[in-house]
Amino acid sequence: xENSIIFHPSLSARFEDFGIPIPIIDExxxxxxxxxxxxxxxxxxxxVKPLIKDDLLKVHCDNYIDHFFSQEIERVxxxxxxxxxxxxxxxxxxxxxxxxxxxxxxxxxxxxxLAIENGFSFFLGGxxxxxxxxxxxxxxxxxDFLAAAxxxxxxxxxxxVIDIDAHQGDGTADIGNKLGVQTISFHMKDGWPLNDHxxxxxxxxxxxxxxxxxxxxxxxxxxxxxxxxxxxxxIVVAGTDAYEKDELPGTQSLKFNLETMVSWxxxxxxxxxxxxxxxxxxxxxxxxxxxxxxxxxxxxELL
Length: 303
Ligand SMILES: [Zn+2]
Fold this sequence. Notes:
The chain has a single domain (2-302), classed as Histone deacetylase domain (Arginase, Chain A, 3-Layer(aba) Sandwich). The relative contact order is 0.15. It has helices spanning 28-35, 53-56, 62-68, 73-80, 94-118, 144-151, 170-179, 218-226, 258-275, 293-302; strands at residues 5-6, 120-123, 159-163, 182-188, 206-210, 233-237, 279-282. It is globular and about 50 Å long. Helix 7 links the parallel strand 3 and strand 4 (182-188). It is an alpha/beta fold. Helix 1 (28-35) packs parallel to helix 10 and helix 5 (94-118) packs across helix 6 (144-151). Strands 1-2-7-6-3-4-5 form a seven-stranded parallel beta sheet, sandwiched between helices. The N and C termini lie close together (7 Å). The structure holds zinc ion (ZN). The site of zinc ion (ZN) has 7 residues, from loops.
């Protein structure tokens, strides 16, 4: 179990290194690892192989991927990260940033392989669940985990994605609907896409809008929806921005306490385990000083 946690400092978002002053506290993964003490160590980084163009073509349209691999990358990144809102602290090297994204997405390739091998793996990063078929969106330029799952030959109809990030997994729904992936998204009612955005709404197989008042019912709701899906490979997008101590201003309508966050994850883990199919987890959203806590406490009970 111990070697099923994918962590390495160079797999973090590294926005600061690229001159993008996005205030995401990047040491979330590091804090999870510190909490788990000697149970988890950094993986040998050479195990991570970047995704390539052919992998992305399995989940995105040709036109978008042509842009992504051309000089147009500048426009792609600019739009996806809303760079008009930031003053870059140094000149952004767009092609290195693209390479970094492909490398980060490669951690999902490793994660899927480890899940197949060991039944369970958890990447303390990734989770680009807003990347849509035709374009990147919401800080998610490429759909890392569906691309990685398909790269490893998993049949789309066998995949179930369970997304507990506070924002709707709209990109996963968009691509999933095209491919026949079963998708469940728990998210803030009316929270995503942002109301001022022109992007059209897409629907997951099961969309479950929730707010803080659903805290007592969440385990039961989860149990009920899990009974409606059956797959042979499970992906859990375990964003922690529904946690009450998450600091993103936009998620204040959804605040679950630590105990709920941990039991919620445990219930999902146990339910998939009962079915005896592999499960790959990854981290997605989570902002501020305490966003590491739900993941750390969940993993601490598991390992
Ligand atoms: Zn989120």
